[in-house]
Amino acid sequence: MNLCDIQTGMNLSGFYLLKQASLRTTAAGKPYLAGLITDRTGTVELKVWDYSGPISHEDEGKIVCFQGRVSEFKGALQVTADRIRLAQDNDNYDLSLLVPTAPLDLQETLRELDTMLECMEDEGYQTVCRQMLRRHQRAFTTIPAAKSVHHGFVHGLLMHTVTMMKTAMFLAAQYGEVLDRDLLLAGTFLHDFAKIHEFKVSQTGLVTDYTTAGQLLGHLVMGAQEVKEVCAACGVSEERAMLLQHMILSHHGQPEFGAAVLPQCAEAELLSYIDLIDSRMEIYREVLDKTEVGAFSDRVFALENKRLFRHK
Amino acid sequence: MNLCDIQTGMNLSGFYLLKQASLRTTAAGKPYLAGLITDRTGTVELKVWDYSGPISHEDEGKIVCFQGRVSEFKGALQVTADRIRLAQDNDNYDLSLLVPTAPLDLQETLRELDTMLECMEDEGYQTVCRQMLRRHQRAFTTIPAAKSVHHGFVHGLLMHTVTMMKTAMFLAAQYGEVLDRDLLLAGTFLHDFAKIHEFKVSQTGLVTDYTTAGQLLGHLVMGAQEVKEVCAACGVSEERAMLLQHMILSHHGQPEFGAAVLPQCAEAELLSYIDLIDSRMEIYREVLDKTEVGAFSDRVFALENKRLFRHK
Amino acid sequence: MNLCDIQTGMNLSGFYLLKQASLRTTAAGKPYLAGLITDRTGTVELKVWDYSGPISHEDEGKIVCFQGRVSEFKGALQVTADRIRLAQDNDNYDLSLLVPTAPLDLQETLRELDTMLECMEDEGYQTVCRQMLRRHQRAFTTIPAAKSVHHGFVHGLLMHTVTMMKTAMFLAAQYGEVLDRDLLLAGTFLHDFAKIHEFKVSQTGLVTDYTTAGQLLGHLVMGAQEVKEVCAACGVSEERAMLLQHMILSHHGQPEFGAAVLPQCAEAELLSYIDLIDSRMEIYREVLDKTEVGAFSDRVFALENKRLFRHK
Amino acid sequence: MNLCDIQTGMNLSGFYLLKQASLRTTAAGKPYLAGLITDRTGTVELKVWDYSGPISHEDEGKIVCFQGRVSEFKGALQVTADRIRLAQDNDNYDLSLLVPTAPLDLQETLRELDTMLECMEDEGYQTVCRQMLRRHQRAFTTIPAAKSVHHGFVHGLLMHTVTMMKTAMFLAAQYGEVLDRDLLLAGTFLHDFAKIHEFKVSQTGLVTDYTTAGQLLGHLVMGAQEVKEVCAACGVSEERAMLLQHMILSHHGQPEFGAAVLPQCAEAELLSYIDLIDSRMEIYREVLDKTEVGAFSDRVFALENKRLFRHK
Amino acid sequence: MNLCDIQTGMNLSGFYLLKQASLRTTAAGKPYLAGLITDRTGTVELKVWDYSGPISHEDEGKIVCFQGRVSEFKGALQVTADRIRLAQDNDNYDLSLLVPTAPLDLQETLRELDTMLECMEDEGYQTVCRQMLRRHQRAFTTIPAAKSVHHGFVHGLLMHTVTMMKTAMFLAAQYGEVLDRDLLLAGTFLHDFAKIHEFKVSQTGLVTDYTTAGQLLGHLVMGAQEVKEVCAACGVSEERAMLLQHMILSHHGQPEFGAAVLPQCAEAELLSYIDLIDSRMEIYREVLDKTEVGAFSDRVFALENKRLFRHK
Amino acid sequence: MNLCDIQTGMNLSGFYLLKQASLRTTAAGKPYLAGLITDRTGTVELKVWDYSGPISHEDEGKIVCFQGRVSEFKGALQVTADRIRLAQDNDNYDLSLLVPTAPLDLQETLRELDTMLECMEDEGYQTVCRQMLRRHQRAFTTIPAAKSVHHGFVHGLLMHTVTMMKTAMFLAAQYGEVLDRDLLLAGTFLHDFAKIHEFKVSQTGLVTDYTTAGQLLGHLVMGAQEVKEVCAACGVSEERAMLLQHMILSHHGQPEFGAAVLPQCAEAELLSYIDLIDSRMEIYREVLDKTEVGAFSDRVFALENKRLFRHK
To answer: Given CB 3.0 to 4.6 Å as the disulfide criterion, which of B188, C245, D143, F177 pairs with C224?
Structure first.
């Protein structure tokens, strides 16, 4: 049963994601487990009375098999487990019901990606892109694009990248006089690649934190470094390597948004706007989805604390 | 002869734009005219010795018929007129050689505009756009989009608007889930419309200054007001009128860039980025056109003083 | 009894404003109502046990007739109702004890307003002001000037406007060389007028939220539009209409404080300072009123988080 | 003759202010003096051929007696001296024609000041003000309020201070509930007093530069220090001394405008706005005076580079 | 027993610092005391049932003698007192176990301070420093350097000042060409001196709040004033007094960090960096001390909300 | 003869740096060379009449052998060449008289550098530093540290680096509890290393411009990349490589000053301050050197436009 549908008095059983867990002691000295379980539709408080393990804080982020009842405590629903255990390898459940996943057809998206890489006429740029994809295909096509702000779901990075590449194709044609399409396309494909090194990703595919290198170096610098190495290894020219690095290093547009250098060629400048558009439109999608027609959303931190309007 | 080709010692005759003019007196007490003449390829200093009129400061921005010689003064070229007079109605010269004009096919662009307006399915939005175009077709399709920063040439506003509408069409399809295509298209069409009221335009079609209302009210507020009136006159719904006004008022994105309100719906947010992209790509086009391959441009004031790189 | 005077164990009955209300269920499955009641002197938690309506969330902002007892829960007072019902039309209670009201003599203030409008020598400016007042007299003289920051009480907008007009009269005389008194006076009278369209006002006269148009267009733009229409309808000159619009559009002084354009004439610049002074002095009045002599207030969000000092 | 009225070919003689002077040598090896002379109406280039002294760079800021002719050089007027000498003590000229002076009646203004000081009911505050005036009457009533931005003329500080005190009187009455009139009045009187220590003032009464202490400590800190000393010397209470210091130290309102601390009581906050109003209205007066009706001024550096509009 | 070591079920007795205290009434109408006790190792909630005094809110910041038990309430530990009383003069406890104290040898630090003052060759600067120390030795060597941000412990100001003076000695030697060592040393010694007037310090030596003068004038201005007075009293030259004042007034570097004037000589500029270094290194010390090796700290408000990394 | 000593009428001959040169034509049609020659003491205008080459614009930045006379033109000195030619390899002149050079003993400085590298106890950090020095010894010890702001002279980068390392040694000892001395020392040594790739350096050793890679990637990113490669090549651990990269990438402290990431460990934070101190003290040295005692300098662009005071 979806957590958005539970009501006081119901029985509940099934597989859920254990978001938080801590072993505690009641005033009366009895051990219990307090935590949160979640699926794609909601989150609810969990209590397991007279329980001292083995499930504990260490198991946050894992899937549990739960059986119990729904009650109300201080005006909010909570669930009390009669039985609870960690999911096993041979358990049969649908992860996509528990963890948010990008709304895309994976095979179709990979085909679109391949087609766009294929259409590059510049061999050097195509080679780097193909080589990067070969190195990291699984991670690149699986991880979210963010911890929470936007595209914070499985396959999020792929969805973000491919959508941006389509926009890049269109604009490269429209502003053909000032843009090198293949440079723009390759820069767009590679811009967030190093997020695969920047994020810690849990068993279920969501971002739980930043890696130490991600925090100390950032995905812009790490991305530029790997692209430089791959260019050298594949015999791609130094000028191409330099331009690709420049696009990756500058794609946040402004220093205060994290750009290591300012965009200084048309493709780099444009990449920063394409990135802005795709991330912003995705935020609108996620926020308006939860807003009633004719009403304003709550304040959205990632959009300068604005409240967004959902018109008819 | 194009002014970019003149050299010391040449004779020069033809029609040029009188950019500056002032009547003065030499140390020896003789009257003369000092000024600048210009065409699309360059600008050069003008001297007319023993001259006390009728051409004067009042004639700046007009076309003159010139005959004289090229010399050098303090390391720079200058031209000395033997004869000079204002162009007459029956003079035969090509204005497009003197005044910068948008690089577009006017009829083709108008057809593209018409097609995009036609494809709107929302009658209300289409009606406002058609009505605004009917009211101001000549001005809208003729004036520049700016005094100098970008699209500062004849038909510049049309070129800017139509290019943006094409991007709007593409992105409305790509992000169909969050965008109302017709609202986006109408807002894009109307966003800079009131520049026809904001600019003073000279005889030759270039912007010479801002009008008083343009300075005191701005094209965002004036544009929203006219759209509101037209909506009321045409029976377009108040909600549509409100949304269109919101898009016009917010299309500069941030208060410090002149937005009267912050964008609060997806179409308004996106419009501000489409505007940014088109103006920035045009600046790149104009600047890189004057930059050698492999070199950096001078600092570009309108792009945060950056120097732009022209790669191969 | 005033809510600031209640103590544990007292009986309490009377009319109060129902600020919040929600119907809930206890752990034992019994329905109850939880909420807040308030008067001008304080706010206290409300509980109605074994209650399932008719009063509910929908009735927030209305007046209730209450009878019950005061107790203490977790260190704070709360009231438990024995009987509770919505106030009826024929109920006899003093709204001004429940809702904060401007500390002014309404008739006297209206007379002062009339005198200042009367003293305008410029017929055009006087006409617009009179016409705007005629259109909206009830709303203009009743609503607060803000949701909470300052003048957030009944008649607040009138108090704010009239006080500012007095300052305008004084400064127009003092700086007569650079100021057109009637323009300054008219601009001051009209500057916040469109708050009557920007706010949602509850039955009791307080602001509960912004209207959709208020949020998407703002009271500056809406005010300028209505003034433009009224000027046209009354035959007031376009220059006057333009200057009044400019004053309304620029009265927040800086873009980051919401000005749609920068003040560009002396009257507009001065209006922004008069507005600043009146709002700031009112914030000081409200904050220092709750601060002991010789002490500092808590941090005041609307005054850049400063703590204010109340000297002897 | 006023310098605004001179024309090529005229003879010119009289007393003028020597604004700049430097002794030079022509290409032919002859010594000459080049400089600028000025009066209240204008400034013109000066040449004295075959001249090697005694007037030199050291005499800038002094008055000279001049006799010569007006000619034109490179499109601008210049004057060539036949005879030139420094003015002597017994020379008879009207300094007020050469140096800009505040547009006020000095005796009347001093009477107004005295009346306002007299009306203070708080003996402590009145004592400090009287004592400061006694110490520095001549300087306080003579110097400009600034080098150039506003009130940059003789008696400028007095004019600025007295006008502000009148506004303070009005607002203290209007906001009597939150303001201590005598504190506001005393703080206003004293706020810029230390400009007498901050400025270097030339023989003719204009500010030529900052003193070293003015630059390193600023008039806010120096003013607060002297007020503290005077309070101690006159037996004024420490709380009064502290509040007056606070007003002086905070009267620039914000740290980025030079405030040493943020205003934290109502009188200090208000003083910063009264100061803003008086300086801004004076800038408008000076700029609009040179602007045609219906036109915009040049950009005004001291008003965030705005262009100001002069309406009818 | 240290509070960091207590566990549910233990008995606890000893002297602790009473951080918070408030007398309350239970739902059942019984009086009790709720509060917090603290030592250098931790803080825990306190309950004293059936207690109505004499200890109350007034005694916060004092030492109490406590005897009772440790229990758990809502997942957190709390202590319940059987007996509690204020510490007496003849009680025997180690204050340094209850209140954080600078990690330094007091006598050794005072000797180092004396040596550095002694090495000044400029008699004037040495005289001021010696005189200031004589006036305020006890306070200067005892109080913290801050309420909480850094050096918020007993002797903190002394530790901060002496460490900075050592750095000043080193840099004065290294940059001897541009620096006057004695001015730098004296300015460093005096820069935060007026914190003795700016802070309210409790019985136990910690900062509890700002004084009114501290809030309204700040330690920069108060420090400069006292140094000026002492210079005058000791016959130190006005230039030295001015330079010392300048260093104190500017040592926060930028107006937005509280500097009353910008640093304008090399010693003042350098002082602001030495201050920055010492305060930042101390924050790192305090934060990293609580961070595991290989991990990042929580966000540190005083360091622009950064998370700090503790490497091996 | 030093250019600071020339006077009208003198003969002048010797070797000078040709700073600017352009071939022009007089009004009379005769060719000439106009330019600037410079030595360490000054700069003067150059004219070579009847000259059409071979020296031209292309030779800017080279040394010329000059023979001619000093005259005065429009109040400024200029030199007219009788003979001029480019310096040859076998010419005998002292380059250090023509080009500004760091005030240091090169051998002594290199010894100091070696000693500090030697004292590192961490083999990994020492290895990277030694290897970087081996790769680039000539460039690193020769080039300036900047184009003009500070240390803009031959050996400037070496001087800047070694001075900073001495400060690092001192502070690593002083704050030993939070600092890893060897990491700080290595980071300091390496922080600006990639300026050897970022600058174009002329024949005479001065910086003339940025390289394309310098402009598009910056010395922070390029430096981090090379250090990463060298670490990998030398078998230095990944954690060391990461920390060194972090220090290089963050050493500008804030994004708006060019930092690619914020400093997040104590050594990185401190490095940014040591860099600030050394660059600022050098600017003071260079500016005060040209300022009279008791006076203020002109505004210094690199120090937020401040005027600096030179006290006794």
So the answer is: C245
Q: Residue for token digits 């194709």?
A: A169
The pairing of beta strand E76-86 with beta strand E42-49:
parallel
Nearest by CB to residue A256, choosing from F224, F256, F261, is: F256
| Chain B residues contacting D via beta carbons under 8 Å | 22, 24-27, 29, 34, 212, 215-216
Average pLDDT, 10 consecutive residues per value, chain E (312 residues): 87 90 80 90 90 88 91 83 91 86 94 97 98 96 87 94 98 97 98 96 86 97 98 97 98 95 98 98 94 94 94 91
* Type of residue at C189: F
B280 and A269 within 8 Å at the Cβ level: the answer is yes
Min Cα distance B260 → chain D (Å) is 18
Paired strand residues for E260 = none
Q: Which of F270, F294, F274 lies closest to F282, judged by CA? A: F274
In contact, F214 and F154? CB cutoff 8 Å = no
Q: How far apart are CA E270 and CA E286, in angstroms?
A: 24
Specify whether the backbone of A9 is left (phi greater than 0), alpha (psi in -120 to 50) or beta. left
Provide the CA A231 distance to its chain's centre, in angstroms.
27
Strands D42-49 and D76-86: parallel
Q: Give the integer Cα–Cα distance in Å for D288 and D221.
A: 34
Count the Cβ atoms, other than its own, within 10 Å of residue A299: 11
What pLDDT, on the 0 to 100 scale, is given for residue A98? 87
Asked if E216 and D260 come within 8 Å (Cβ–Cβ), the reply is no
Q: What is the pLDDT of residues A166-215, one digit of tens each?
A: 999 999 999 999 999 999 999 999 999 999 999 998 878 888 889 999 99
pLDDT at D26 over 80: no
pLDDT value at C122 more than 70 = yes
Which distant-in-sequence residues (6+ apart) come within 8 Å of E199 by Cβ? E143, E144, E147, E207, E209, E210, E211, E214
The closest alpha carbon to F133, from F12, F227, F10, belongs to F227
Residues of chain D that touch chain C, judged by Cβ-Cβ distance less than 8 Å: 163, 166-167, 170-171, 174-175, 177-180, 183, 239, 243, 262-266, 269-270, 273, 276-277, 280-281, 284-285, 288, 296, 304, 306-312
Tens digit of pLDDT for each residue in B57-78?
Answer: 888 888 999 999 998 877 678 9
> In terms of C-beta density within 10 A (0-12 exposed, 13-18 middle, 19 or more buried), how is residue C91 classed?
exposed
Q: Counting every residue, how long is chain C?
A: 312
Among chain E residues, the shortest Cα distance to D249 is held by E217
Residue F114 per-residue DSSP state: H
**What are the structure tokens assigned to E307, written together?**
């998370």
Q: Which two tokens stand for residue F210?
A: 């940025």
Kindly list the residues from chain E whose CB atom is less than 8 angstroms away from the CB atom of residue F307: 264
pLDDT of F68 > 80? The answer is yes
**Which residue's entry shows tokens 């022209």?**
B310
Cα dist. E19→D234, E42, E46, E91, E99 in Å? 43, 11, 10, 19, 11
Residue-wise pLDDT tens digits, D79-121: 999 999 999 888 988 888 888 899 999 999 999 999 999 999 9
Q: What is the dihedral of CA F90, F92, F93, F95, to 10 degrees?
A: 40
Dist CA D145 CA D199 (whole Å): 9
How much is the pTM? 0.91
Report which of residues C92 and D130 the model is more confident about. Answer: D130
Are F216 and B71 an interchain contact pair (Cβ–Cβ within 8 Å)? no
Residue in A309, A291, A287 with CA at minimum distance from that of residue B268? A309
pLDDT in tens, F100-127: 899 999 999 999 999 999 999 999 999 9
C259: chain B residues, CB-CB within 8 Å: 255
Under 8 Å between Cβ of F160 and F102: no
